[in-house]
Amino acid sequence: DKEVRAIFLRLFAQLFQGYRSCLQLIRIHAEPVIHFHKAAFLSQRGLIENDFLTKVLNGMAFAGFVSERGPPFRTCDLFDELVAFEVERIKAEEGNPPKMIKHVRELAEQLFKNENPNPHIAFQKVPRPTEGSHLRVHILPFPRINEGQVQELLQEGLARSQGAPPATRGDKKCVVPAGPPVGMFICHL
């Protein structure tokens, strides 16, 4: 699962390398609007006639990508690092499948670590019932719930949540690395 995601991450990093140099921040509105200059991106990469990339850039998914990833100051992630710093590595690995596979595995491991930051927490497996356990009659009646205690616990929880400071994410915003200019990536798909 993570290796397939890593392959697609590399693909989109290669496809959109240099996209940040074609972003334009328009500040005529109360909220700044981010515009992607498609023609400049395609012409600088020598892909004006490429129907696939043109359709990708005209799609709604890419518009969402630009609005989400366009701001110059936001939380950075693995994709931003690939686009900005791994350009030469990805190019060098094109003719060397073992190096490419190694890089995909490294990315997959990073994706796994991002999703499981606490690997030491292990989930306990439920033991398989012993043979014949279903034949034993040892079903205890479900205990009665004390409504007063339930209400008391709910009130305590509400009081704690109202007095607690709002939860904040630990992600720190930073300046998104621009990476090399688009002109470096002249290729033919």
From TrEMBL:
Residue ranges annotated for the UDENN domain, each copy included: 1-76
GO molecular function: guanyl-nucleotide exchange factor activity
One Gene Ontology term, aspect cellular component: cytoplasmic vesicle
Biological process terms in GO annotation: regulation of Rab protein signal transduction
InterPro entries: dDENN_dom, DENN_Domain_GEFs, Tripartite_DENN
Name the UniProt record assigns to this protein: MTMRD protein
Organism for this UniProt entry: Picathartes gymnocephalus (White-necked rockfowl)
Lineage per the UniProt record: Eukaryota, Metazoa, Chordata, Craniata, Vertebrata
